[in-house]
Design a protein that fits this description.
By secondary structure, the chain is of the alpha+beta class. It folds into two domains: 8-83, no CATH class; 98-143. The chain contains two helices and ten strands; from the N terminus they run E-E-E-E-E-E-E-E-H-E-E-H. The strands form four sheets. The chain has a four-stranded antiparallel β-sheet, with no helix packed on it. A two-stranded antiparallel ribbon has the order 1-2. Strands 4-5 form a two-stranded antiparallel ribbon. The longest helix has 35 residues, at 109-143. It is rod-shaped. The mean pLDDT is 81. The structure holds zinc ion (ZN). The site of zinc ion has 6 residues, from helix 2.
Length: 147
Amino acid sequence: MPVLEDVNVMEMDRATSKLEEVRENPTRVFVSIPLATDAAGVTRPIGTAGYYTWQNGNWFDTGGNWIQDENQVPQFARDEIAANRPIGRVSRGPAVTAVCQFCAEKMNSSEMEAHLVAHMNETLRAAGQIMDKGERPVTAKNTHRGT
Ligand SMILES: [Zn+2]
């Protein structure tokens, strides 16, 4: 079942920590106000206004529920979509495009090289600590000199 999505699809740009719009869902909202003409010949709105949202070829009602039968949507709204179908923007800005094969962290591909170097340094540091532990008895012996 189609689900009404946010109009603006945002993703975190890991380089700037800012949200960037990566995609826009083509969306248009129509308001339908039921009108009635009373005995005096005056036309005024009756009942509550209905909202009809068109998104990516699907219709949704006021509550955001999918309208399966398009005939429930007012004709004027359907006509307008047919005549002028919305097209969503797709931005070319930075987006999460790379996943680290070691820790599965997501980031921009431009950050990946530095990230992998950090992993390598971590590994080398860990290896160095193992060597330090092996040499510690010698260091401890040296501190006793002079006392
Ligand atoms: Zn990683």
